[in-house]
User: Fold this.
Amino acid sequence: EASLGPEKVHRTVVTKTNLAHVEDLEKMFGSEFDNIFFIGNERKDKNRLLPREYCAKDSYPNVLCLEYNDLLYTDNDGLERMVKTIKQKIQESFPYFATVPLNEKAAIERVRDIVEVSKGTRGYDPRRYGILPSKVPPPQ
Assistant:
């Protein structure tokens, strides 16, 4: 992904990328953060799998591999269950997050916003979630 670089990562605590090379990402950005975690999802139905070594906790304790089905929901109750399940998996996989409050309500709103943005019904302003400093202008 050509747009991934220090200038993008420094502006956020969460970055989405299609790059699946953990070693490269750790080399590029690991020194910029006290902790760096990776969450990937697999689509077994389309044979889009993460390298097995990434999903082995003893090899990569900072990587969480999710099933694509873990991210699916069809209604508001399903969205709430999905967020709760992902939160639980994050806290179980990364002990660091067992002591950090993760706001389920904010996560649900963020997912709803991302759905609206993907439909083209609204622009995305990540400042709503405290991701960018307030002095950064919203995306055009």
